[in-house]
Design brief:
CATH architecture of the largest domain: 3 Solenoid
Low-confidence stretches: none
InterPro entries: 5peptide_repeat, Pentapeptide-BTB/POZ_domain
Number of domains: 2
Pfam families: Pentapeptide (PF00805), Pentapeptide_3 (PF13576), Pentapeptide_4 (PF13599)
Strand content: 15-25%
CATH topology of the largest domain: Pectate Lyase C-like
Radius of gyration: 27 Å
Order of helices and strands: HEEEEEEEEEEEEEEEEEEEEEEH
Helix content: under 10%
């Protein structure tokens, strides 16, 4: 079957199935709306081909070329596209379901509403690519290269990112949901309003990264490096940051409610208006930190060190302070008088009025 016959069959609404079309050139042909099932397209040339709303099911497309193809709402299911090239191509609404995309090249592509579901993306290249409103769900990304990529409003869902390459990438409103990211090198990168929900971030390095208004709800962040970060209004609610390095971080107005901060190091950190309500900060270091108007109500700061810290109306209402080390406590409020009186009243046993 030659290219013209394939185009005719597609235009007649027939399914192309079970054919071996290795090395075929379909460049510039119109195959929009075509359905291809179990076709061998190894080393096929789709450059400039119109594949809008086409469907590939169980096909082999190893080393195929899609450069400049029209791929709007095209879908690939259970297909092999290893070593294929989409380099520099617009990919609006493209869907990959359970595909093998190892070593595939998406460099400099423009991806809008792109979806990868249950795919193998190992060694795939997204260098200098734009991913907007896209989703990568339950995929493997070993050595997947996102160098200098731009990611906007994109979601990584339950994916293993431990060995992907984010060097120089920019992240805007990106959602990482239950991903594995232990030990990653995010030094100096910019994350704008990103969400890290229940991620595994143990030993990840965010040194000097920008994390303004990022959320780390419920994430495991033991021994994470947040030194010198710019993370104002960031939220670490219910996160585990035991032994974290937060030295000299700009963390004003950050939230650490119910966080585990055992032996965390906040030396010289800027924490004005930060909220540590109900956090567990046993043995944490707040030496020389700026804690003006911070709130440690109901927190456990036993054995913590506040030497040299600066306070101004810093609230420690009902905080546990066993063997806490202090320098100058001027500006510390051990209890909120009005709140304390209200709590004392509520704790009184109920006594019915006599009849």
């Amino acid at each position: 079957m030659n290219a013209a016959q394939i185009q005719q069959k597609v235009k007649q609404g027939e399914i192309v199935e079970g054919e071996t079309l290795r090395g075929i050139s379909l460049a510039q042909y119109d195959l929009s709306g075509g359905i291809f099932r179990h076709v061998d397209f190894t080393e096929a040339d789709f450059a400039g081909c119109n594949l809008e709303q086409s469907l590939f099911i169980g096909c082999t497309l190893t080393e195929s070329v899609f450069t400049g193809a029209q791929l709007k709402h095209c879908s690939f299911s259970e297909s092999t596209l290893s070593f294929a090239s989409f380099q520099g191509t617009a990919l609006p609404g493209l869907i990959f379901n359970e595909c093998n995309l190892q070593h595939t090249d998406f460099s400099r592509s423009e991806c809008e509403n792109l979806q990868f579901n249950g795919c193998r993306l190992d060694h795939t290249r997204f260098r200098h690519a734009l991913l907007n409103k896209s989703a990568i769900s339950e995929c493997t990304l070993e050595e997947s290269d996102f160098t200098c990529a731009r990611l906007q409003k994109t979601t990584f869902h339950k994916s293993d990112l431990r060995r992907y390459i984010p060097t120089g990438a920019g992240f805007t409103q990106v959602n990482f949901f239950e991903c594995k990211q232990q030990g990653l090198d995010y030094r100096g990168l910019i994350f704008s309003q990103c969400q890290f929900t229940r991620n595994q971030l143990e030993r990840a390095d965010f040194t000097s990264a920008e994390l303004t208004r990022c959320l780390f709800h419920g994430s495991s962040m033991q021994k994470v490096n947040l030194s010198n970060v710019q993370a104002e209004q960031a939220q670490f609610i219910d996160a585990n940051l035991s032994h974290a390095n937060c030295r000299a971080g700009r963390l004003n107005q950050s939230m650490w409610i119910n966080a585990l901060l055992t032996s965390a190091d906040f030396d010289r950190a800027q924490l004005s208006l930060a909220r540590f309500t109900k956090s567990r900060a046993e043995g944490a270091l707040f030496t020389d930190a700026e804690l003006e108007h911070a709130d440690f109500s109901y927190a456990d700061v036993s054995h913590a060190d506040f030497s040299g810290a600066r306070f101004n109306r810093t609230q420690f209402h009902r905080a546990t302070q066993q063997e806490t080390r202090w320098g100058n406590k001027s500006g510390v409020l051990d209890n909120d008088p009005e709140l304390y009186a209200a709590e004392e009243w509520n704790e009184q046993p109920y006594q019915p009025e006599p009849r």
